[in-house]
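Annual report, structural modelling task.

Input specification for the NDP complex:
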Amino acid sequence: MSKVLIIGAGGVGGVVTHKCAQHPDIFSNICLASRNEAKCRAIADQLPRAIETAQVDADDVEALVALIESFRPDILIHVALPYQDLTIMAACLRTGVPYLDTANYEHPDEAKFEYKEQWAFQERYRKAGNMATLGCGFDPGMTNIYCAYAQKNLFDEIHTIDILDANGGDHGYPFATNFNPEINIREITANGRYWERGEWKETAPLAEKRTFDFDGIGKKDLYLLYHEELESLSQNIKGLQRIRFWMTFSEKYLTHLRVLENVGMTSIEPISVNGCEVSPLQFLKSVLPDPGSLGPRTHGKTNIGVIVDGVKDGKRRKVHIYNICDHQACYREVQSQAISYTTGVPAVTGAMLMLEGLWRGEGVFNVEQLDPDPFMARIGEMGLPWQVVELDPEQDPLA
Ligand code: NDP
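The model returned the following structure:
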């Protein structure tokens, strides 16, 4: 019987609240807090059991400490924005509350996301005997745990990893993003980057393209992107020689994005409009559909996973580990589309394992540093079943 404090009442916050509410034996008391309390109440109203709500500015450490001291949670799940990672980690450190998030720290003024500042909490969390779990969504999150599972159970040596993120869903809008548009567009318009033999290699944005035939979705074009889990996995998977991240985009999506980029709408840098300072990207975010509203209209499936290539018992082996998730099934269960669902479910599963002591430690951990077995044993019944498919080790599946 534990108390959970959830920060952030967006698409992912809604799923996390629903999923915690489904497990009253573990999460006996739930408080959902966000900048705008009305959004918390709207989520609480969808549920049959009582959820406390609160207003908090998560950029303000003192306000967070006051909220934590009044609710006294056993764990905090942070699903506000990556901009708030450091303030929320600081508040958890001050109050001794275990911390879990789904995205690494992003600098509000520059398109730069990295673990450096969160890893800098390591010694302080360790000395305080507290635990912070970083990046426990789907990617990062589930994908890192698939890699850790492959390392522990399927391979003696891992040589290469390709992370494949496919969304075969259609929401019927000409252009919308599946999660926070500001974070999503900053991620996609940044240069591509991958890691090979100890070095980072840069590509122009969306310059590397491949095709893959996804179970449940069919053939899709994939584009190479830099994604945050590459930073931790390149350090934590022993013997790794190369790791890349690929995401599917439709031609329609890319055409809209190119036009918006060409006219300066994807820049975070503020410009002066009639004497007001306006960030074009933040303005764009405010006119695009709210990702939280896409649930009822999104049909189709996601297929997200990893292709791991290496050696087992002296023989070359290549596997694809993945989950298929259906947008409408998610909507029926928790009133959200699959992108928020696939992020929120691993977050709640990770929080459960921390509360149960199956994930235990003092310090700051990326999820692949924790035992993948209890997580893989639990995540199917939580809503994200997975499968391992053997691939021909001699063939390159990313044609
Ligand atoms: P949304 O934009 O839908 O929701 C973010 C929420 O955070 C909003 O309710 C917002 O409140 C709240 N918020 C923003 N700033 C503050 C603040 N200063 N204080 C308190 N609350 C604040 O985003 P998503 O739900 O789509 O994403 C949530 C997180 O999940 C993000 O960090 C995102 O990067 C991560 N993510 C991770 C994925 C993964 O697989 N690992 C995939 C998808 C998302 P308000 O509405 O009042 O502004």
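Residues 8-13, 34-36, 39, 56-59, 79-82, 84, 102-103, 137-141, 179-180, 183, 291-292, 339-340, 343 surround NDP (CB under 6 Å).
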